[in-house]
Amino acid sequence: MAEPKIRPLGDRVLVKLIEEQEVRKGGIIIPDTAKERPQEAEVIAVGPGRLDDSGKRIPIEVKKGDRVLISKYGGTEVKIDGEAYQILREDDILAVLE
Q: Global pTM?
């Protein structure tokens, strides 16, 4: 899969949601309608950061390739070249998984 050619603006981040495994312990398969929206994602692209009151740029703390936990209902879903992504503000990123 080729990386999308997109550059988020300001303090926005483009992520690809990481889907949970369909089969759980005991071999039970969870139907799509019963699954919760994934909260884990991979950072695909980051914007340059937001500007503070004096016009100084504040860089974003995450970088391309980071695995992050995101707010459950934050951001905007977008489709690029048939692939689903999400654009969200840096504030909607809760943590970086290490």
A: 0.78
